[in-house]
Amino acid sequence: MAKNVHLRILHAAVLILFVVGVSGLCPPDWFEHGTSCYKTDHVKRTWDDAAAQCDRLGGELLVIETIEENEFIHGLLKNQSKEWAWLGCSDRSTEGQWLCYKEAASGVTFRNWSPNEPNNRGGTDDCMAFHMVDGKWSDSKCDARIVYAVCETISIQGKGEGVTPSSSAAPVSCYTFGSNGRLRV
Ligand SMILES: [Ca+2]
Ligand SMILES: [Ca+2]
């Protein structure tokens, strides 16, 4: 009798693990939203260091493409009380010409600047930052170590919706299943 109960519990546990293992569209500890996965970092970094950290985690610095995505990120940062977060766009190469980190975002036109931003203050505001207070963006000093990283990668669902790698050497994320059945970056 007791053995049967234990077996049933074991079966249920295996089933739950299986369902969780195969239904996750994002790596463990990443937030899923739309066709993307997001991970917040808990160390304040420069823009370059934040970009490197996202690369290490298997993603890229966040690039916001719609007001809906902006609202999601706004809620996420508010929830974690993070005042500023780096966005993956910079105008370091050519002043006023904002290039975004994500290859797929090269055609992105969505902008959500604060009033009077970008102002290129002191001639050196060249990296894009998100302000938790109002969800608006500013240009900031790339070497200011006052900002958190938010990393983004495309979810399995997103990859299945016709996202094709570009012909240039854009970073590519690969996923494998670990021995525990969960995704491994
Ligand atoms: Ca600038
Ligand atoms: Ca500024």
TrEMBL record:
Keywords: Disulfide bond, Signal. This is C-type lectin domain-containing protein. It comes from the Eukaryota. The keyword Disulfide bond applies. InterPro entries: C-type_lectin-like, C-type_lectin-like/link_sf, C-type_lectin/snaclec_domain, C-type_lectin_CS, CTDL_fold. Pfam families: Lectin_C. Residues 33-148 form the C-type lectin domain. Residues 1-24 form the signal peptide.
